[in-house]
Design goal:
- Strands 5, 8, 11, 14, 15, 16 and 18 form a seven-stranded mixed β-sheet that branches. Strands 9-10-7-12-13 form a five-stranded antiparallel β-sheet, with no helix packed on it.
- The radius of gyration is 40 Å and the shape is elongated.
- With about 575 residues, the protein is an alpha+beta fold.
- GO terms for molecular function: ligand-gated sodium channel activity.
- Its main location: membrane.
């Protein structure tokens, strides 16, 4: 086969007849090596310029004038771009620039490329919309979690005895004392729950003393207890109340087991806690919802909040409770006898309506199953309204140390009540003792209005940040009380069995007991292991880039090599040519 010298420029007349145009490397400004199947008859060679197959340079018979550096740069960039489209790895683009194709053939390939690009763009847009609208998914943990990795639930015991007969006969109370009784007695009429004016400081202290002294104390209620971490299998008779803290709830003065310091409220509420718990004081914790317990084994079972190593009744909390029937007042309690039990996370507030009723003369067994919600650290990059949850450092509450959705709602309710009504209920947390307490009819009407308004506000805020509206909201900060990104909740099952009926004829350590005065409760975990839920990104960075790259490669043949080709032909090669020419000058 005839070959040309590397640097020889050939005139059209010097090409031998036996040399096919297909064997030449160039045709005009285009490469022909991909089109050797094209018949030479369709090629109309321009006689004014010949391309040498070894030298990528157009030789023009007529001598051109000098070009400016900018014009030369643009010319080289256009040549490189043309070469990229013609010889690059993109699917079908070179057919659009094929010089031997007619207009109809080129138009066909333009339509094909347009359809391919359109479908690829639609699929990528749908993928992007799914990534923005649903950036995470909830899945069940693949590995079970041991129960010693989560706190034992807080158990709040509320006796159905708010004012002891030995302290005051509510039927004979008048004036301010009758109003105090109406604040805690569920049986008393609404007319008695209103006072004509706000209470002053002295009257508020009188109210606090009435509520605390009128209710039974912890030693009067908790007669025996067993916590395996401290007492092994023995029942403790004298020091049970060291495990319980007084706490105000919607059911009056109660006693909480495994409650956090200041009942998980901020240090600003310490003065308010002192009104019903003289031993209340803040204390640092080595545990948190986001960080969990320290990674130490065996675990420290005395660390707050308390936890257990195993499930079963022998590893749970056992309490024997006593309620003196002679102290019961129908005018205050009605026919209700027994206790109200609240089971919740140590971080949650106790102003809740989810309760269990504990009857007398029964053994009540409560089996608890924890459920954890965890969130990948990678989702911190998303805004809270997009991920639909808050980490602990993202939203601080005024009254509660830990952020949870229930704490957020109650914190918002207290703030709105202070703002709109200029008062709060006596059992709600306060930062200062002198803050007004709601006592008048207008105050309670205002509280009812605020409760409805806050509930409506939360519903509207949730809708504005819901999946349907996500991405259209202009709010910079989430106004909803979304759940905590890392949290633990407890589901419970309750079982009852009868206690012996012979105690009325016997003698007990605490005196003569009658029917309807004693009950027992045991709270324990149902199983040693449980499966939690995990919130993670639906598409992480690598998966998302891979999905986009896969679609571009599938429809267009675009890859990392295509990017390298574009940089080489359009940037590096023109720069090299300009640099060489500049050095030659």
């Amino acid at each position: 086969m005839f070959e040309y010298h590397k640097n020889k420029i050939n005139e059209i007349n010097s090409i031998p007849n036996n040399l096919s145009v297909e064997e030449n490397l160039y045709f005009r400004d285009f490469y022909l090596k991909d089109f050797k199947y094209i018949s030479p008859d369709v090629v109309n060679l321009n006689k004014n310029k010949i391309i040498n197959k070894d030298v990528e340079k157009v030789v023009i018979n007529e001598k051109l004038g000098p070009k400016s550096m900018l014009e030369k740069w643009i010319s080289e960039v256009m040549k490189g771009l043309k070469q990229f489209f013609y010889q690059g790895s993109l699917h079908g683009v070179k057919y659009i620039f094929e010089p031997t194709f007619g207009n109809k053939e080129k138009a066909t390939w333009v339509i094909i490329m347009f359809i391919s690009i359109f479908i690829c763009a639609v699929v990528i847009i749908q993928l992007f919309c799914k990534w923005t609208s649903t950036p995470f998914v909830n899945v069940i943990d693949s590995v079970p979690t041991p129960i010693w990795a989560v706190p034992f639930p807080t158990v709040v015991i509320c006796p159905h005895l708010h004012v002891k007969m030995s302290y005051a006969n509510v039927s004979e109370l008048e004036g301010l004392q009758e109003f105090f009784a109406a604040m805690v007695c569920p049986r008393m009429t609404k007319d008695n729950k209103y006072w004509s004016t706000r209470l002053d400081d002295m009257q508020f202290h009188m109210l606090s003393d009435f509520v605390v002294q009128g209710a039974p104390s912890c030693p009067e209620v908790v007669k025996a207890c067993n916590w395996p971490a401290l007492h092994d299998t023995k029942w403790e008779m004298d020091k049970c109340c060291e495990l319980f803290q007084p706490i105000f709830t919607n059911y009056g003065l109660c006693f909480a087991f495994n409650s956090l310091p200041l009942n998980a409220m901020t240090n600003d509420t310490q003065a308010w806690h002192k009104t019903f718990d003289v031993d209340a004081k803040p204390s640092a914790l080595n545990w948190g919802l986001d960080i969990g317990y320290p990674k130490v084994f065996p675990p420290d079972l005395t660390m707050k909040p308390l936890r257990v190593m195993a499930s079963g009744e022998a590893n749970g909390l056992g309490v024997e409770l006593f309620l003196n029937n002679t102290e019961h007042q129908y005018a205050c309690e009605g026919k209700s006898l027994g206790f109200t039990i609240l089971i919740s996370s140590p971080t949650d507030h106790v102003y809740t309506s989810t309760v269990l009723r504990l009857p007398m003369d029964r053994m009540t067994t409560i089996e608890v199953t924890p459920l954890t919600y965890k969130t990948d650290f990678s989702l911190r990059a998303l805004s809270p309204y997009r991920r639909q949850c808050f980490f602990q450092n993202e939203k601080r509450l005024q009254y509660y140390e830990f952020y949870t959705d229930s704490n957020c709602k109650h914190d918002l309710l207290v703030q709105e009540a202070r703002k709109k009504c200029n008062c709060v209920l006596f059992n709600w947390p306060r930062k200062f003792i002198w803050e007004p307490v709601c006592t008048t009819k207008d105050d309670f009407d205002c509280i009812s209005s605020v409760e409805a308004k806050v509930e409506e506000q939360l519903i509207y805020a949730y809708y504005a940040e819901s999946e349907d509206e996500r991405g259209t909201s202009q709010a910079q900060e989430s106004q909803s009380c979304h759940p905590s990104c890392n949290d633990v909740i407890y589901a419970s099952q309750v079982f009852y069995s009868d206690l012996t009926k012979e105690m009325e004829n016997g003698s007990h350590k605490w005196g003569h007991l009658r029917l309807g005065e004693v009950t027992q409760i045991n709270v324990h975990f149902y199983d040693d292991m449980f499966l939690g839920q995990h919130r993670h990104a639906q598409y992480d960075d690598y998966y998302f880039v891979g999905a986009i790259g896969g679609l571009l490669s599938l429809f267009l043949g675009f890859s990392i090599i295509s990017v390298a080709e574009l940089i080489f032909f359009v940037l590096l090669k023109p720069a090299y040519v300009i640099l060489i020419e500049f050095n030659q000058k």
